[in-house]
Write a structure and sequence with these properties.
- The structure is a single chain.
- By secondary structure, this protein is α/β, with parallel strands linked by helices.
- 38% of the residues lie in helices and 13% in strands.
- Strand 2 (39-42), helix 2 (51-61) and strand 3 (64-75) form a beta-alpha-beta unit.
- The structure holds adenosine monophosphate, fe (iii) ion (2 copies) and zinc ion.
Length: 289
């Protein structure tokens, strides 16, 4: 492990305006540097469109950038997120699958807005006004439009109310099975890590037999240090990670002002990042030297 080329603290899960973060990739890198991080991964939902801008600014700011993405997957009615690091962003299968997901997200968001618009003043143009061109559209953009219209005070309030599945406006969108996504990431030279796997709902889906199936397909780690993970399933998954030699990561899941999560509130150890870098062959970290 000689010649480590990055510095800590290390935060491996953040979002920019390429998906549902509120800061551009450049602003995100400046915020990371200002908060004292040495290494950051940009992991927008279903898109790598922020990598180049983030890499340029990370270099200016003197921080290492790990290129990544948060892949939307689905098991029955539950959405399961897969972090993917250091894969080839030009891989044709990944490009096709993420384009399909982004399109499905757009159609689904329009359907949700149509339903909400029957009961509240809200139009699709309101949502587009909260979205940068080409961004991966999600409920956070609808939440911002609801806030702009005065139907909620914050994103979180919109999520707890109108956007909650119980409110009746929720609509799922197409996403592949996690097993398929892991295979795509592996085939593109990437390193797959299950994002916040101990949140309510998702934890029940990660039984040991299911996890073994994912590990056999190439799952490399579990993001267990994350504010939304619950204590009891986290303890169970720490044991499973140890038993199956998975790495454990920690990160903020920062979304700018769109969520209370702060950069660096959870971090990943240098030893774990070193293993991720050794395993990733589809792209290189953007080092500062
Ligand atoms: P979607 O994938 O479109 O269903 O929306 C889920 C996204 O909304 C996730 O990426 C979360 O980061 C974000 N999200 C979930 N809950 C909240 C919340 N309470 N406040 C802000 N963002 C949230
Ligand atoms: Fe998000
Ligand atoms: Fe997520
Ligand atoms: Zn995320």
């Amino acid at each position: 492990m000689a010649g480590v080329r990055f510095h800590g603290p290390i935060d491996l899960h953040t979002h920019s305006s390429v998906s549902d973060g509120t800061e551009t990739p450049a602003e995100l890198m400046r915020a990371a540097s200002a908060s004292g991080l040495g290494t950051i991964a940009i992991t927008d939902h279903d898109s790598t469109a922020g990598w180049d801008e983030a890499a340029r600014t990370a270099r200016e700011e003197g921080i290492t950038l790990i290129p990544g993405m948060e892949f939307s997957t689905r098991v029955m009615h539950s959405s399961v997120h897969l972090l993917a690091y250091l894969f080839d962003p030009a891989d044709a299968d990944i490009l096709a699958e993420t384009a399909r997901i982004r399109h499905a997200r757009m159609v689904r968001a329009e359907q949700m807005v149509r339903r909400i618009g029957a009961d509240y003043s809200l139009t699709w143009d309101d949502v587009l006004a909260q979205t940068t061109v080409g961004a991966t559209v999600g409920r956070p953009h609808i939440a911002d439009a609801l806030v702009a219209r005065g139907h909620a005070l914050t994103r979180s309030e919109a999520f707890a109310g109108i956007l909650h599945w119980r409110a009746g406006y929720y609509q799922p969108h197409y996403a592949p099975d996690p097993l398929h996504a892991i295979r795509l990431v592996k085939a593109a030279g990437g390193v797959p890590v299950l994002a916040h796997p101990a949140t309510r709902g998702v934890a029940d889906l990660v039984s040991e037999p299911r996890l073994i199936q994912l590990i056999e397909a190439g799952l490399f780690g579990l993001e267990l240090d994350h504010r939304e993970n619950k204590d009891e399933p986290t303890r169970r998954l720490v044991e499973l990670a140890e038993r199956h030699a998975l790495v454990i990561t920690g990160s903020s899941d920062y979304h700018g002002s769109g969520k209370p999560n702060r950069l660096g509130e959870n971090t990943t150890s240098p030893e774990v990042l070193e293993r991720i870098i050794e395993a990733g062959t589809g792209s290189e970290p953007f080092y500062i030297d």
